Amino acid sequence: MQKSIVLTLLLTFTVYSYSQNKPAYKLFNSKGHKISYKKVIKKMKRADIVLFGELHNNPIVHWLQYELTKDIAVGQDLVLGSEMLEADNQKALNDYLEGAVNQQALDTLARLSKNYQTDYKPLVDLAKNHKIPFIATNIPRRFAKKVFRTGLESLDSLSMEEKSWMAPLPLKYDASLSQYVKMKAMMGGHGGDNLPKAQACKDATMAYFILKNKGNSLFIHYNGAYHSDYHEGIYWYLKQANPQLKILTITVEEQASIKKFNKEIKGKADVIIVTPTSMTKTY
Q: Which run of H or E residues covers position 254?
């Protein structure tokens, strides 16, 4: 009887403790099995390139980007890069990394996202403090808008300098890739193929600058999850250029409850960060 009472109390305490536990995130592999933070570190170190997909306003994924990068930076040759910085701002970014200009000057010289201070500056400053190259990988947004309005052919009219801020022309484009098909469907066909083509010119450019600057280092790239989910987008362009590359993809998924893994997202990435939908946003 006494043992039964003790067991009941232990079970009650365990259930109560679990119900009071509010984890901010959980980590899973592509099959939906829980994995540890340490395991993610090991996976990243074994890769040539890490495509770290994010939801731009999710604070947990930005925090994990910083923490994982900081922990890997010790004793590891790194190059960092981000979708949120555009290639024509590379000189201003380099000047900041080298200490030639301060943050106020960078704010003036570069087009920084509205959440740069909270979500990307910590990564850029980490690179600055550890003397790690940081690459502005994205095509200037005005060029992507140009593609959306008038198609990929419109890029032919750019100047030689402008073309240096993007992947070489002509750009490969596979309209059958599922992410581009979904994107076109989400718009209900409005804009025809130009919306996924605008996405493709971003994907191709980010892949191009990753490969151009990688050298023999591990390249960690921070991008919107849609740009690398299901091993498409940037991943597809990288593999087109070099099929032998070892690329690790990371994504984030928001769920009402993170106790169980949503089986519908199996295979979305090699590492899946699950956070609660109730998580506060950065904007």
A: strand 247-255
Q: Domains in the chain and their CATH numbers?
A: 25-138+206-276 (3.40.50.11550)
- Contacts for 161-166 with beta carbons within 8 Å, 24 or more apart? 164/87, 165/86, 165/87, 165/88, 165/139, 165/140, 165/205, 166/87, 166/139, 166/140, 166/201, 166/204, 166/205, 166/208
At 218, give phi and psi (nearest 5°): -75, 125
pTM comes to 0.91
pLDDT value at residue 125: 98
Residues 43 and 246 sit within 8 Å (Cβ to Cβ): no
| Residues 248, 45 contacting (CB under 8 angstroms) | no
Q: How confident is the model at residue 15 (pLDDT cuts 50, 70, 90)?
A: very low
Mean of pLDDT over the chain: 92
